[in-house]
Write a structure and sequence with these properties.
This protein is an alpha+beta fold and 205 residues long. It has one domain. The protein is built from 4 helices and 6 strands; from the N terminus they run E-E-E-H-E-E-E-H-H-H. Strands 1, 2, 3, 4, 5 and 6 form a 6-stranded mixed sheet that branches. The longest helix has 11 residues. The N and C termini lie far apart (45 Å). 23% of the residues are buried.
Amino acid sequence: MALNANKVAGAGPKATPLAPDNYPARVVQIIDLGVQNQRPYKGVEKPPINEIMVTYELTSEFMLDDEGNEDKERPRWVSERMAFHNLRADKAKSTKRYMALDPKGECEGDFTQLVGRPCLVAIVNNEKDGRVYNNVGAVSPPVKGMDIPGLVNEGKVFDLDSATAEDFAALPEWIQGIIRDGLTALPFETETEEAAEEDEADLPY
């Protein structure tokens, strides 16, 4: 699942889908989605597994302002959601992404340290219901000598093991929904839960 730039709220015209190509980028977000049910594969049920979402900030592509010009303060983002496997699972998408972002193993497998890492993101186009969406086809290390600008937006790590209710509330509502619909019990009370408890306290019985 990808964060589609056509759906990003803000001023100016909607951005058109990017052409399939490799784009310079940096990791801007690592989001722990908790344990999620998996779709069957070839009719065989798959067990639930922890998932993460990785978001890349493209350094050469931008949203448009009211006049249709590129807004350098609003780089385009693209995200992908994946099952989170041990690095020994060398064919897993999460392993391939980690090795592309940390080929020398400097972070010792810690995805939370990958925010800000440079890379090349291969954008592919997928069509659904008559609309074209950008998705991540592959990620590779930057070409030697390539200058990739730093992040424009502040990097974010959301780890359910250490997150607070405030951290959760800061996430976009659609990501909150994915986490709530998962199988991991939140280690904190959300505003919705607190409101429900207050409502119960007001009941006359």
